[in-house]
Structure formats: structure tokens, C-alpha cells
Amino acid sequence: MASDPNCLTCSNGTCTGSFTLGSVSLTPTASSGYTFAFWNDGTINSTDNPLTINMSGDKELTAQFLPVLKFPLSGTLAARKLSHFYFNDTWTPGQCPSGTYEKHVGVDLQATTTDEVHAAHTGIVREIFTGQHSEWADAIVIEDDNNQFTTVYWHVIKYGNLGVGDHVTKDQQIATVADLGDNTHFHLGIRMAPFLSGTSDKGALPVNNCDSKPAYPEHFVNPELVTYE
Question: Is 60 in contact with 177 (CB distance < 8 Å)?
Fold first, then answer.
């Protein structure tokens, strides 16, 4: 919401208002359970709060808010970081017949088969994807209770009788890390959109739309930008 009282018309997360030419100060206010991440209008990519902009004409500016999550492994993301396969990294193998490059939509983290995986937030299990077990193992997708975002946990084995439709609470154990031999690791993805079958479980997406596969990042955000409890 802007400091100018004229900016009071809001609908579905979008606020509009009229301003005189000159400087305007914008202050983002996060809902409970979220934090402000950054502003973006295609040229501005700022974390300033408040943000001062010059109204020389019509402008459209997006404030990105991200959820406050529980880190799903023990320790911290910073301590678990691997030296490869980060958000936005380009993989040489393509998902398309043309060989289009694909980009990583999450972060890969150091893990062992003894590691427990916990839900990063409260929500509903929307998908338990059974992959090629010797190579990728399984994935679990959880949508938050307000249908605002999903998290995906790849290279895991589900815990106990966990099933699609189950309601889980933040920090509840949902899986253990799968044994992938020398390639054992854990993938965390965060998608700022409601659950979408066939997309919310993605670990990578092609650079361009291809064979019904959406282009990177398709609402996925960098897990390194999120605040963890």
C-alpha cells in the first residue's frame, strides 16, 4: 500500500491509485506468516522498504511476498548448500525434442539417508509422485491451507501412511531422504501459486514453453530468498 491515501482500491492482491507527478513512497505490508521479499517492475529489483519512485507516468510495480517456513531438514539451508544445481542453473539435457535447455526450479541440498524430512508449513498433501526410484526416488507436494503456494520435496521416501489428501502441520515428519547412492541429496522447491498437477512437482523446467511443459520458472521462487524459522 502506498503512503498516499488515494491508493486504497485493492482487489485480489492488486492495489491501484492516482498520484501527482513527483516522488511517491511505497510501503509493503505482509500478511501474517509472510515477509516482504522484493519489488519488481521489469527494471527495478529492490528490497527497499519503503521504496521511493518517481511518478513520471503510469507505472506497474509488483511487491513479492514469501512465506515464513520451517526448514525441512535439520540445520540450515546455508550449511546444507551443495556446489551445484541451484535455482536458475541451466542443465544441458533438454526436456523437449529440440533439446531445449532446462533450468533448476529449486535448490539441491546435502543430505544422507538417515535424514528426516519435515513439512515446511501446514497444509494438504496434494501429490505423492513415484519416480524412477533408482535415479530420482519420490516427491511430495504440499499446498498451504490458503491455496497460496506449494512446496515440493524430491528424492525422498514418504513417512508411514502419509497419503494424498492428508492434512499435515508445520514441522511434522513427512519423509526420509532416499538412498540414491553417490547422488544422494534433497531437493526443495517453492511455487507461489495454487497446486497444479504435473507442474507443482517439477524439479526443472525448459527455458521456453515446449510440448505443454511451461517455461521456467512458472511461479517457482528461489528457496534461498525465503525466511526459515
Answer: no
Q: For 5-25, what is each residue's pLDDT tens digit? A: 444 466 666 777 777 778 888
- With vertex at residue 106, the alpha carbon angle to CA 100 and CA 112, rounded to the nearest 5 degrees, is 120
What is the structure's pLDDT at 177? 97
Strands 34-40 and 62-69, sheet pairing: antiparallel
**Where exactly are the structural domains of the chain?**
9-68, 70-228
Alpha helices in the chain (DSSP H): 77-80
CA distance readout (Å), 112 to 80, 140, 183, 203: 11, 18, 10, 19
Going by C-beta distance under 8 Å and a sequence separation of 6 or more, which residues neighbour residue 57? none
Q: What is the pLDDT of residues 33-81, one digit of tens each?
A: 899 888 887 666 788 888 888 888 888 888 888 899 999 999 999 999 9
Q: Give the gyration radius of the chain's Cα atoms.
A: 19
The CATH number assigned to the domain with range 70-228 reads: 2.70.70.10
